[in-house]
Design a protein that fits this description.
With 80 residues, this protein is mainly α. Helix content is 52%, strand content 0%. The longest helix is centred in the last third of the chain and has 13 residues, at 56-68.
Length: 80
């Protein structure tokens, strides 16, 4: 198991999310998780650029879906 960072996030999980889905736009993720996802960031920002600064709610949503294998499916099926 990895060591927790200063804010108790396990960096290997965040790194895996960033590696697999880092190019996903915040605007796309808001279509999945709602307008409060990554609050304060423009919809054109990439997930890899905001991941380390996400609030606990947004990060928990991502981790849950990533760990269960649902994140890729949800991203692939976002209406354009």
């Amino acid at each position: 198991m990895s060591k927790a960072g200063l804010d108790n996030r396990h960096r290997n999980k965040d790194g895996e999310i960033s590696h697999k889905h880092g190019n996903t736009l915040v605007g796309t993720l808001r279509k999945i998780y709602g307008p409060g996802f990554a609050a304060g960031y423009p919809p054109t920002e990439k997930l890899s650029d905001v991941l380390a600064n996400l609030n606990e709610t947004s990060l928990s949503q991502l981790r849950r879906d990533h760990e269960t294998g649902h994140l890729a499916h949800k991203i692939a099926h976002v209406p354009t």
